[in-house]
Amino acid sequence: MSRRQAEPIALEDIQAMARYALSRGHSHSKWAVYCGAMLRLGLSVSVYKALTTKSKYIYVSNGRKEYKVRFSDHRPNRQRSDDCDFIVGRSHLGSSSTRAAIEATKEYFGINNETAN
Length: 117
Known about the structure:
Blueprint: E1 7-8, H1 11-23, H2 30-40, E2 44-49, E3 56-61, E4 66-71, E5 86-91, E6 94-96, H3 98-109, H4 113-116
């Protein structure tokens, strides 16, 4: 997987996805909730959707550094330290939530609750 394959996503895209999901009686995707939260914090977001699995790789940037989060419904085939910075879902080390990913990303970029409001 190459960073070049990730597509930038805007808040308008996330909102359109939410409207569509709700109109079909579905909940909003967890990875999209995360992307929306990051965009509302003023960060840039790009998404890579894996072709053979339902995994999504989210690249978040403030223009100086980047944080990579993996959303998946399965454990990774291999869990390398350089594969991503945070895994949402099941991993070989346990499981984690979207909320935990948001908090970890805010910590990485030095965003606290006061600056996020």
